[in-house]
Amino acid sequence: MGGNMNSSPLSISDNLSKAVAFDLYKKIRSGEYPVGSWLPSEFSLFSKYGVSRNTIRESVRMIRNAGLVTTIKGSGTRVISNVGNSEIRIFADEIFARADYLRDLYDFRKITEVELCAKAASRRNIQDIELMQKNLDFNVCYSKINNCVDAKSCFEFHILVANASHSDIGLSMLINLRPIVLQIMGELALHNRRKVADSTLQLHRQILDAINIGDMDLARLRMEEDMNKAISELEFLLENSPDLLLKFAH
To answer: Which of 37, 165, 188, 204 could form a disulfide with 119, with the two C-beta atoms 3.0–4.6 Å apart?
Structure first.
């Protein structure tokens, strides 16, 4: 996998400006905003992205300095290039590298957690089952009250599955991933709270049932389904939450 992903030293406003600038860059590159067309108005952009006017102005300044657009007073901002200078391309390459890092991380999670779940089905004890059931009961109650799952408790279920495998190495690896995974899960909850809650709880219930009856193949299958869902959700965020990648700086 890629290098160290520590917290970005940029301020929140800097991150948002870069996130919007990168999203505009992608739309210009893809042809959604073709050369010769006009960008949406400042009002439309700040409404679309949910950020301040100052953030939008800074984002437009970034892509203007990159040679992608020109601003004509009284008319708006026009796209003049879909290539840009080396500065914007270096920045884009960095962002794409962060996306690849997160994809690799989730592929690693899938490989690891599927096997840990199978081991849990063969090694679990009564206490392991009780802890997982308690976690599931909590999230069912939480989702009914808040219309979403608690991200921390939801990932804790995966930790409990790893714990039930009685594999110290596997458990340690999963615990080390907790900060990044919780951040991604928190972002996802902002987009589609009810759908995420229902599908997550259903899969966790099926995983627990498979572990409880000691069916290793079924446990492996259920965790694979859960991780495929998580990977699909990550792709959704990479496409629809442009500021996510800026939270994972090298």
So the answer is: 165
How many angstroms separate the Cα of 146 from the Cα of each of 50, 138, 156?
Answer: 23, 12, 18
* 121 pLDDT more than 90: yes
* Distance from C-alpha of 222 to C-alpha of 226, rounded to nearest angstrom: 6
The structural domains of the chain, with segments of one domain joined by +, span: 12-84, 102-247
* Under 8 Å between Cβ of 229 and 203: yes
Of 50, 91, 48, 100, nearest in space to 234 by CA: 100
Residue (of 70, 116, 89) closest to 25 by Cα position: 89
Kindly tell me if the per-residue pLDDT of 249 is higher than 60. Answer: no
pLDDT tens column, 151-177: 888 899 999 999 999 999 999 999 998
How far lies 8's CA from each of 61, 71, 139, 243, 249, in Å? 21, 30, 31, 12, 5
How far, CA to CA in Å, does 119 sit from each of 66, 168, 229? 52, 12, 21
Q: Which fold has domain 12-84?
A: Arc Repressor Mutant, subunit A (1.10.10)
The label of the residue with tokens 């960008």 reads 39
pLDDT of residue 86: 65
Rounded to whole angstroms, how far apart are CA atoms 229 and 250? 27
Is residue 60 over pLDDT 60?
A: yes
pLDDT in tens, 201-213: 899 999 999 999 9
Q: Give the pLDDT score at 1.
A: 43
Is 2.40.50.140 the CATH number for 102-247? no
